[in-house]
Amino acid sequence: MEREPSPCELRAGSAEQAGFDPARLERAFGLVEEFVSSGRIPGAVVAVGRRGLLVGPRAYGWAQVVPEHERRPMTNGTVFDLASLTKPMATAPSILKLVELGVLTLQDSVARWLPDVAAGTQGRQWAHRVTLWHLLTHTSGLPAYRNLYAAGQGPAEVLAELGETPLSRPPGVAVEYSCLGFILLGEIVKRASGEPLDRFAERHFYRPLGMEHTRFNPPPGWAGRCAATERYPDTGEVAVGRVHDRNARAMGGVSGNAGLFSTAEDVARFMAMMLCEGMGSKGRLLEVETVREMRRLQTPGLNEPRGLGWVVRDGDPRGSGGRLLSPEAFGHTGFTGTSAWADPVTGAFFVLLTNRVHPTRDNTAHLQLRPWFHDAAAAAVVDAK
């Protein structure tokens, strides 16, 4: 007798097979197509899934529009700079894997793993108080952003600058989304595991999940498959296959805050694993309780609902996930225009990758598209109970 496929073995299927109303799901896809055809965003690739079935990917528009002679259409396999999706898809799971391996704990201080940061004039004030849990939940008190990419800067200089960065508030009192905290986490993965973040994440997650088009620092041969991002006003460079985030560039392209590149189908594989509570098609990658803790509200009573690496909806209608996902839903976005959400209650996930920063970050149409798309796609789920 043929074995029944596991819901953790993602495979292609129709909307009806996956438990979506086909007409309603087409309306959700149509919203994305409308934003592209009207010129509000250059291009997008979208995919949804449920019951171990992937619907899509669907590609719309252009992967690159400037310069004109390099214009390229978007394809189902276009590789995107995921930007801050790096945080929950590389950095956070790597830290949690090291917890499972007994190498570190979430109550470890920054100072334990990064004594060079703790030696800074500001770091000595906070590095013994800020824990990995604070960094993962964006409650460290570190500011959201700081220019760390001055000419000639490399990883050592970036970390030294972080040691000279004061907190904007005491640890644990509020959520302030901080790329700086995740740069620290990426370096902690390297120090604790003995291998860089890219190699650790590839070995423990991407290779076992069959995510063959997911990596940091894409090779030159991938350039023709990558969605373009911003044309920098100061240099005129259009970033293609090179990380958009300049702090991540200063870290050599492998950084805890940004730098991961992937396709819609590969992101879908990762989201399916998260919904399967750590199981992939080839076995367990994270323990059930680890995944549940990542998706659980960690910041009750504070100003934003955060899990470990993930945003959790918790009934908050302001987020990119819209209003119709359950309070248990979790997701994340990336500055370049990427996003992924999943809902454990319905078992559905939604991947929306755009290149909205191409050729300029001034385009904010994605902020309207994201909740509209997620509401329309969530409304297409049938037999949700």
TrEMBL record:
Official protein name in the record: Serine hydrolase domain-containing protein
Domain Beta-lactamase-related: 31-366
One Gene Ontology MF term: hydrolase activity
Natural source organism: Carboxydichorda subterranea
EC number: 3.1.1.103
Class of the enzyme per the UniProt entry, highest EC level: hydrolase
Keywords: Hydrolase
Record-linked InterPro entries: Beta-lactam-related, Beta-lactam/transpept-like, Diverse_Enzym_Activities
